[in-house]
Write a structure and sequence with these properties.
Elements lengths: L3 H13 L1 H8 L6 H27 L11 H28 L6 H11 L1 H9 L6 H17 L1
Helix pairs in contact: 1-2, 3-4, 3-5, 3-6, 4-5, 5-7, 6-7
């Protein structure tokens, strides 16, 4: 089951204090299913749903008149989960190539924690006028966290 209290604590700490958060989560990161239940699925689904709601609220401001749909929401969740798995697989494979530990569970934990700002950016990207800039900045910050 999803522990919402632990998830929100990890998300908040990953945004504002990423290094100690990773160090404290590392002992729990050995099970990829636990990471998926605790972080990956709630982040992907939550970001998609919140972006959908904000998109509905601000869609009248857009010059293009774009309105989010339920089909787009479901497709975004599915593709987000697939992308999280593929990125974690690539990250863990490259870790093994460069002398690190080739572990999918650690790769999923590292990429999920590093991409927390990107998920927040996905939500803020639905804001009119400035959302794209906030989304871009938080996406770049996610890549910097992943690099560290």
């Amino acid at each position: 089951m999803i522990d919402l209290t632990r998830t929100t604590q990890l998300v908040r700490d990953a945004l504002f204090d990423p290094e100690p958060t990773w160090r404290s989560y590392l002992p729990e990161a050995g099970d990829w299913q636990k990471t998926a239940r605790l972080l990956t699925v709630p982040l992907v689904v939550g970001a998609a749903v919140l972006a959908f709601v904000l998109g509905l609220l601000g869609s009248g401001v857009s010059a293009f008149g774009f309105r989010p749909t339920l089909g787009g929401l479901v497709l975004g969740i599915v593709w987000g989960l697939i992308a999280a798995g593929v990125v974690a697989f690539i990250f863990s494979f490259l870790a093994g190539v460069f002398g690190g530990k080739n572990s999918f569970a650690l790769g999923l934990a590292a990429t999920t924690l590093a991409f927390v700002p990107g998920y927040v950016g996905q939500v803020l990207g639905a804001l009119p006028w400035i959302g794209w800039l906030l989304s871009l900045a938080l996406g770049i910050y996610s890549l910097i966290l992943l690099w560290r």
